[in-house]
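User: Second chain of the day. Same drill as before.
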Amino acid sequence: PPDSKAPGAAAADGGGELLARVVVGEMGIGKTALVEAFVSELPEGTTAYRVECSPVKIDLPYAAVSDLLREVTGLAADVDFEAACEGVRTVLQSRRSPRAQRLVTRLAELIVGKEVELQDEDAAAHHHDLVVHGVRLLFGTIADDAPVVIVIDGLQWADKVSLQVIKRLLERSEATPVLTVLVTRSDERVNSYIEDMVRTELRGLGADEQV
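Assistant: Same format as last time:
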């Protein structure tokens, strides 16, 4: 049975703050099945995207974010860079500002897995900011047409940089119809990134419940 624990419930449910939920539980407890049931019952017109983090990519910076971008744009990792740029532009077609166009390159680089050479920490921080702004703009554009649900499964396997991006995305208080559902095992590695989010913890049945 789900045990709802919401240390950040007041912040999450009032005043338009972050719209995210975390489903936590051990392997095989039913986290993915619960979320799939939820997604299957979403109102008509809602757009849902789902990615699953892999332990193979846990040390690859931006791996989880890259997978999410591919899912949203419908582009494969082996697409050429120009096609990736065009794919991002297509999604951002209603956003023609110079700033939006500057973000296209950053997102396209992640889609094709292009390695970006960063000279120093300032350059790395600037690149990180551009990625955060680009992903936020991308989902904000999609949500202009219909509510969006983003499911990130296996969060315990997400790379550290993607975890940082996700946390920053969810810190914003914009009234955008985007719900992010994070699915994870209880893991010290990710706890600091989800500690303020409303969570549903799945636990095993007790003896009385089993009877």
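Confidence is low (pLDDT under 50) at residues 4-17.

User: Great, on to the next one.
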